[in-house]
Design brief:
It contains 10 helices and 3 strands; from the N terminus they run H-H-H-H-H-H-H-E-H-E-E-H-H. By secondary structure, the protein is mainly alpha-helical. The chain has one domain (4-210). It has a 3-stranded antiparallel β-sheet, covered by helices on one side. Helix 5 (65-83) crosses helix 6 (92-103) and helix 7 crosses helix 8 (127-144). The radius of gyration is 17 Å and the shape is globular.
């Protein structure tokens, strides 16, 4: 098994880009920015590290997506606090919302709104409601050790009925869908912190999900 210190950041973030080469080129561009002038590299690294850790979960806890959600939400909070220059502690839910509803763009918000639906068959949850579901799952894992109830849709399977908040909701999407949202949000956050006129933003200017 590889080590977190040896992450290939471009490979981890490739789902956010149309090609693997563009992912590598963007990562190289961001990593070349002097640390004294931008936190873009920190955002990119934090997001990629949490995504990489989430990727390892299936090795030791297959079909326990609450663990992956935990790492996705950790990444979201960390990135939002860096982007918004938040120096203190707390306000975790507020910053997770800022990541998904501000740093992420309309494409990611539309994907979030296609993630869950009310059960019995009912309307889809809004993007804001979906973020609250993800944050609540994070709290169940981090505060109560409850990682074994919540489910997401598996590839090739129908929507999944999953316990939530004393009842049930239907998961219409899977881990890979949420992972892509977080990867794209991490790249968008990094672009936001890149110095004006830097070539990193120009690299993704033609990728609608990243601008």
């Amino acid at each position: 098994m590889s080590h977190i210190a040896d992450i290939d950041y471009g490979a981890v973030l490739k789902d956010a880009f149309p090609t693997a080469d563009l992912a590598q080129e963007f990562v190289a561009c961001v990593r070349a920015i002097p640390a004294s002038t931008s936190q873009a590299k920190i955002v990119l690294h934090q997001g990629a590290r949490m995504l990489w850790l989430a990727d390892q979960i299936d090795i030791v806890a297959r079909r326990r997506p609450a663990f992956q959600i935990l790492f996705f939400v950790i990444a979201a909070e960390a990135i939002a606090k860096i982007v918004h220059s938040f120096p203190g502690e707390g306000q975790s839910r507020a910053h997770v919302n800022k990541f998904f509803l501000d740093i992420c763009g309309p494409i990611q918000r539309a994907a979030l709104a296609a993630t869950f639906a009310r059960t019995p068959p009912g309307p889809r949850l809004t993007a804001e409601e979906a973020v609250n579901v993800l944050y609540d799952v994070r709290c169940d894992v981090a505060h109560r050790g409850r990682y074994y109830e919540f489910a997401l849709r598996e590839p090739g399977e129908p929507p999944m009925l999953t316990p939530y908040d004393g009842g049930h909701i239907t998961a219409l999407a899977g881990v890979a869908d949420l992972r892509r949202i977080v990867a794209e949000g991490a790249v968008r956050g990094s672009v936001r912190l890149s110095p004006p006129g830097n070539t990193c933003a120009a690299l993704v200017a033609a990728v609608p999900a990243l601008v």
